[in-house]
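In this supplementary section we document a worked example of the pipeline. Step one takes a protein sequence of length 151 as its only input; no multiple sequence alignment statistics are reported here. Step two produces a three-dimensional model, which step three serialises into structure tokens for compact storage. The input and output of this example are shown verbatim.
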Amino acid sequence: FFSICVPMLWGPTFLFVAAPPLLKIDAFLVSLLIGTKQSGNVVTFIDGVHSMQIWPLCSSFHNISQAALAWVALSQTLGRDLGMKDVFWSGLAIILAAAVNLGRLALMAVSPEYFVTIHGPLGAQIAGGLTIVLIAFTCMIGQRRELFARA
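The serialised model returned by step three reads:
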């Protein structure tokens, strides 16, 4: 039950509590990707005129709990004990989940004319779908021996 609560309660709660340093890390990574300036959780767009502020719900750390939950759920479904190999594969799922949103933030900063589209419902659906596919694929590949042994 604790694992199920992670994406809806514990993950967002932790993100709001730890938001200031995490949002600064997000802004730093986006500014590093696109080559612009960053101040706190604000990133200057590539045009040098506009800027955006990164909020907790837009953070690349937002979907980490989904990746962790997917890994734990699949491991428990397959009835396997967690080991050192799981650190690598679950870590990869977490990094990919964060990378999708980091890329989305970078796209917003590179293309201010498409900011509303990328940040809006269409961009959110595309990023969310890509995140879920990458998480599922990584979890299945990481647990392929156990997953296909039961088939």
